[in-house]
Amino acid sequence: MPPVLWTESYRIGHTAIDHHHRELVECLVAVQTAIDVQASMAEILGRFDFWLDAFACHAQIEERLMDRLTLPPGSAHREIHCAEHGDFLHEAMALRTRMKTGHCPSSIIENLGLSLIGFDLIRRDFEMIGHLLHEGQLEIG
Fold this sequence. Notes:
This protein has helices spanning 15-36, 41-66, 72-100, 106-134. The protein is an all-alpha fold. It has one domain (24-133). Helix 1 (15-36) runs antiparallel to helix 4, helix 2 (41-66) runs antiparallel to helix 3 and helix 3 (72-100) packs antiparallel against helix 4. The longest helix has 29 residues, at 72-100.
């Protein structure tokens, strides 16, 4: 399957977060490519671990931003968004465990990428930016 690719339509308007999102997508492409070319398991896991670390750091940055949210809708969003970060990391860790057994078609990484894009990059992060703007906790530009 072709890798999940970054497009500018994924941008949410926050320069640092957009940069992180692009890097996260590119790191997943590197994992998927390593699987497709049948690289060593050490290389595949190394690339996946690099992506996992990058995602964990990215989630922490977003969660620090969301700590600024104090109004009920923003607070509710923060709770849901942070829980989804945790769920996504647990899913990724389970996938890593599965990868160690040698069973990991690149389509599994593609599905992880689609989940990342569909929920974190697009839906939740656009909502996060909206809440931050609404509460005056983020300036445009």
